[in-house]
Amino acid sequence: MSLETDFIQVFSESDSLKSPERKAYYKELVAFSREWLLGLPIDAAQHFKRLFFEGYLPVNRGVLGSWEPFLICLSAPSLDRDYVVSVFNQYANHSAYDVVKIFRVHFDGRDRAVSPDIISRYCSVVESLGHDSATWLHGERSSGPDLYLSFYAVLFGALCRGRGTAKYIGSRLVNSVESNFNRLIEGVGSAEQLTYLTKQLTSIFSAEVEEPEQCYSDPFLVGFAERFFTCQLPEALQGFCQNIYAAVPPSQRITFKDDKIFYVE
Amino acid sequence: MECLLYVLVEASSLELRDQVELNLSLDKPVLEEDVEPQWQSLFSALEFLPLPEQVCKFDKCRLLIAWAIDFSTVPSYFISPLVSAGLKTLGALEAFEDGGYCRVSMGNEVLKAARSNKCREEQVFFSPNRVASILMA
Questions:
Q1: Which one of A200, A205, A216, B115 has the fewest CB atoms closer than 10 angstroms to its CB?
Q2: For residues A124 and A126, what is the distance between their CA atoms, to the nearest angstrom?
Q3: Which residues does chain B have within 8 Å of residue A18's beta carbon, measured at their own beta carbons?
Q4: Are residues A125 and A241 in the same domain?
């Protein structure tokens, strides 16, 4: 059988697929796959190599198991949101769920001994899969929205524990999560995330945090406070936050003026 | 329950042993064009063999190689490429995390390497030195 009938071209074949930089990146991807992408088929190596260096995959999808769309995105010569969404939309919803869930549990806000190139692409994939055009988010009883609500909620949790938010992917998802808050709170596990968010916001609104100076100067929190105190948050989120703020005794409440957050120690 | 396939092999030279060790590691060459001509057939033989969990060196140019496997995988899948790479297979066994091991029957053809009913209760899963001594005996 000919190559054309057995394989589909996933990337444009060119010499640049075999550049020295790509060879070095390939080694990093092999190490990453070995450590994090558990359950890859035993014969995945040959298919992955052909994909990476020649741009082909067999017509019958799934030779790379449920990790196939992720490995396509990690291997692609270039990556953007439409590409990530179009690739994952061709596969079962659990592929996207597993990729985002592993990031949430094992990577978000953590320093892992993984190449910066892979982390950067992984962040792009997670960010892209949160877009409304990704079909996995709309599956019946999808837990996808909960994960994105969680990415947002952990920003406040980090602030309460005296950590900055810059290392968390939630800081890149703020606009997306806030503007889709209405939809995200309809996720099957949103109650748990909202309980967590309520607890963290209560601590922040009442200045009961571990490192107040660092917390209240964090760029994400300053931006959030500005949107909250000027009532610019989307309606559902604004109402949710106002209820929490109102429950804090007035003498303990933080305030916002001249681009700064004020708190009582 | 985890299972490790341990395979004991012998190279005809230290150079060959070192090349095998390299080609079973994350540092292995990526494409054949990156490999010196005399090692290209070894590279091809081992190119798609899954990377092992452990590789232990022993004297006489011997290597004990361990792969995590499941029961759907036949031992010959791992052993055949080693033979194609020019190595002599001295023996193999499957060791179970909960204890016990079973020898792999090589038969006359490595391609027929298969599980045997020669099993013992001894715990060797975490002991490559003990595995090596069993396979060298």
A1: B115
A2: 6
A3: 31
A4: no
